[in-house]
Design goal:
Elements: H1 12-23, H2 30-38, H3 42-56, H4 60-69
Helix pairs in contact: 1-2, 1-3
Amino acid sequence: MATMLAPKDFSPDEDAMALNKAFEGWDTDEKAIIWILGHRNADQRKQIRMAYEEIYLEDLNKKLKYELSRD
């Protein structure tokens, strides 16, 4: 995944919560997911995955696969 400019002062917890919010409701907010993950480098995405699992007790990769493959 190519990364745009990744912010140096980001919060993995805030990103994890923003991703979870993007999953809520009838439709998944795909633009929010792309904006968050597309603006983070590989290490930051790993930190987000770890934060998401710690907060929501769920694997972020599995959640993304589920949310993005639904009709």
